[in-house]
Amino acid sequence: MTEKNRFPNAVAFRIDDPTHDQLLIAAEAAGVSPGVWVRSLVLKALGSEMKAPKIRRAAANAAQLDAIFEELKAQGRNLNQIAKIANTSGSTVSIAADIAAMRAALEGLLARVLDLLHIDEDA
Predict the structure, then answer these.
(1) Domain locations in the chain?
(2) Is 122 helix (H, G, I), strand (E, B) or coil?
């Protein structure tokens, strides 16, 4: 069954340019189209129990997340190098410092990911 058949009533309205610009920004930040974003607000405001079509969210801030994933790959390579050194030298002094530095870097990456994935409750 298509969405058109399941939801026979269409709603259209006009908005000014500044409001449209804000709508585009809000929808992009939520990772959805402007129509889906507005529909979710209407359904929430009306307390509707209508089951809206499932949406596949675009990854908001995808470029920044890609950069974070590249950094995670680099950290994984560092961890492999630390394991190799630990297995060959047996020295744990420098390894402990390396692991502490990696942990700090990973905590920073986690904070960035959580910040980027935050979606406003109203969107």
Answers:
(1) 14-57, 62-117
(2) coil
Report how far residue 123's alpha carbon sits from residue 121's, in angstroms, rounded to the nearest whole number. Answer: 6
| Length in residues, the chain | 123
What is the per-residue burial (b if ≥16 Cβ within 10 Å, else e) of 21-55? eeeeebbeebbbebebbbbbeeeeeeeeeeeeeee
Average confidence score pLDDT of the chain: 80
119 pLDDT more than 60: no
Q: Which amino acid is at 36?
A: V
Q: Are 103 and 66 spatial neighbours (Cβ–Cβ below 8 Å)? A: no
SS (H, E, C) 40-100: HHHHHHHCCCCCCCCCCCCCCCHHHHHHHHHHHHHHHHHHHHHHHHHHHHCCCHHHHHHHH
Give residue-wise pLDDT tens across range 33-61. 899 889 989 988 999 888 876 666 556 56
* Residue 83 · residue 45 · CB < 8 Å: no
